[in-house]
């Protein structure tokens, strides 16, 4: 299984489709905060640990 790049998602690209929607820095910060906040739904269901790597990637892309 291949996951889309965060940089593509921010630009509105999912796979070969262009959605025409872009995320702003505040949107990326929100997603990053959600990955490490208590009570969140983990992206990997077998893990209950905060998803620091994913959060950092969203922050990096959002603030470029």
Description:
By secondary structure, the chain is mainly alpha-helical. The protein has a domain at 23-64. It is built from three helices and two strands. The chain has helices at residues 6-10, 25-36, 52-62, and strands at residues 13-14, 17-18. It has a two-stranded antiparallel ribbon with strand order 1-2. A hairpin with a 2-residue loop joins strand 1 (13-14) and strand 2 (17-18). Helix 2 packs antiparallel against helix 3 (52-62). The protein is globular and about 35 Å long.
Low-confidence stretches: none
What would you call the shape? globular
Rg for CA atoms: 12 Å
Number of helices: 3
Mean pLDDT: 86
N-to-C order of helices and strands:
HEEHH
Secondary-structure-based class equals: mainly alpha
What fraction of residues sit in β-strands? 5-15%
Protein traits:
mainly alpha, 3 helices, 44% helix, globular
What's the helix and strand layout?
Elements: H1 6-10, E1 13-14, E2 17-18, H2 25-36, H3 52-62
Antiparallel strand pairs: 1-2
Helix pairs in contact: 2-3
Summarize, please.
This protein is mainly alpha-helical and 64 residues long. It has three helices and two strands; from the N terminus they run H-E-E-H-H. It has helices spanning 6-10, 25-36, 52-62, and strands at residues 13-14, 17-18.
């Amino acid at each position: 299984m291949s996951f889309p790049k965060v940089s593509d998602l921010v630009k509105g690209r999912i796979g070969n489709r262009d959605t025409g929607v872009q995320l702003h820095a505040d949107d990326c910060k929100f997603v990053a905060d959600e990955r490490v906040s208590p009570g969140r739904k983990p992206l990997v269901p077998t893990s209950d640990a905060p998803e620091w790597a994913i959060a950092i990637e969203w922050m990096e892309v959002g603030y470029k």
